TrEMBL record, chains A, B:
Organism whose genome encodes this protein: Sanguibacter keddieii (strain ATCC 51767 / DSM 10542 / NCFB 3025 / ST-74)
UniProt-recorded name of the protein: Transcriptional regulator, PadR family
Pfam families: PadR
Transcription regulator PadR N-terminal domain segment(s): 12-91
UniProt keyword list: Coiled coil
Nuclease among keywords: no
Coiled coil (residue ranges): 123-157
Tagged with keyword Transport: no
InterPro entries (UniProt xref): Metal_resp_DNA-bind_regulator (IPR052509), Tscrpt_reg_PadR_N (IPR005149), WH-like_DNA-bd_sf (IPR036388), WH_DNA-bd_sf (IPR036390)
Length: 227, 227
DNA sequence: TTCGTCATGTAATGGGTTACATGATTAC
DNA sequence: GTAATCATGTAACCCATTACATGACGAA
């Protein structure tokens, strides 16, 4: 249950859970998920795959010909597949909903694999991220209130813009959380799913108390060194 | 003219150009500028200061008492000041407007010090960043067009949201560029400045050709490994 | 035949964090 | 007296990038 599982590892395992892939292809898909759209280097990917093999979470098999959807023989490449251990590990990672799941670096990956994540976990992560962002917003507004006047025009504008981006992300989360709740309600009522992810962000309960469970991943909420 | 000058170094020099500061205080201000609002660790800051001292760009002086605005004796701390070399170096960094100035990591710092930057350079950096983002947008839309159908709901939503954020930043840049141009026009006409940074983003010329000058910082535009 | 893309890797390097170590000063 | 904040630093480590090395395949 302990193993750190970096963002990259989670992403690799998550993708391989959909279908076996070789490194080169893996990288391309990774770029769509990781950080939005930035190139991950092979210098990170291959050592990561190596390590996963060593730990028995995936296996690599040289596949010379006839890939599933017989395109063309191409060339020898190593197709990686999840092992039973790997699947188990992935499930445990995907089941966690502590701070580690909603911090900047990991949230995106976790969100990208929401399709393989339990509905309650999804909600917990979304709410966790939202309160994390709100907390940050509060900090910035506080410190801004104290130092606003002695900041020049551009610094101020940069701050304003940053704040706005975060506020927008909070509203995005509001919408997603509402959608998830609607779905939950529909599920328990036994109705066919109707809610779409792109539903408008209803104003949501004005004061959402969110007693998120910090059950895993060590790492508690009150770390100093934040403001 | 060559020296790499990391983001952190630029930020430090830029802040010290306003007024001499000691490490602890420096860090707090750095956090407002760098990456928006994230804690920079002393483990990065102090070695950086050390290196700047070694290279003669700043000098540290133990200041035991009477800080400028006589608060209280506090305690021995090391107040850093820019040297002539340091000022010169900073000016040359601030004068550069190549790709290195508008990439993700450095753009924020450069923008934060626009108050100390030449107007033409400001425009060039803003335009450079905008075309960088547009280029990225194009790439994502292209690859999205090819793989859209086999992506699940959440991955798709993540991508949509990422795209939206970037589009928003482009509009932000549109506004800033217009403001800068207005100011330039006002300047050459000898009028008192009236344009505010928060002016609405006019639709801007529908197709802005931007022949940005890649004059410094090695690093050309057509690096592979991007899509 | 040469260029672009597919494909897999390693070594050096870089830029940061965390944890550690230390100690004075201030507020409760 | 004791906790929080001020203040400065070092050492170990992490995770990723860049540059390098290699080579096959398909298309121009």
């Amino acid at each position: 249950m302990r193993s750190k599982s970096s963002v990259l590892e989670t992403a690799v395992l998550g993708l391989l859970n959909d279908s076996p892939l070789h490194g080169y292809e893996l990288r391309k898909r990774l770029n769509l998920v990781l950080g939005s759209f930035r190139a991950l280097s092979y210098g990170s990917l291959y050592p990561c795959l190596k390590s996963l093999v060593t730990r028995g979470l995936i296996v690599g098999a040289a596949s010379n010909e006839a890939p599933p959807h017989a395109l063309s023989g191409k060339r020898a490449r190593i197709v990686y597949t999840l092992t039973a251990d790997g699947k188990e590990h992935l499930q445990s990672v995907l089941a966690s909903s502590g701070p580690a799941a909603w911090e900047d670096d990991s949230f995106d990956v976790r969100f990208a694999f929401f399709g393989q994540t339990d509905a309650e976990t999804r909600i917990r992560i979304l709410e966790g991220r939202r309160s994390r962002l709100n907390e940050r917003l509060e900090n910035v507004r506080d410190s801004s209130a104290r130092t606003r006047e002695r900041l020049d025009e551009y610094t101020l504008e940069l701050q304003r813009h940053g704040l706005e981006q975060v506020e927008r992300e909070v509203r995005w989360l509001d919408g997603l959380i509402n959608t998830e709740r609607d779905r939950r309600r529909a599920r328990t009522a036994g109705v066919t799913p109707g809610a779409s992810l792109t539903a408008d962000a209803q104003p949501a309960a004005p004061d959402q108390i969110n007693p998120y469970v910090v059950d895993d991943e060590g790492r508690d909420t009150d770390s100093k060194e934040r403001g």
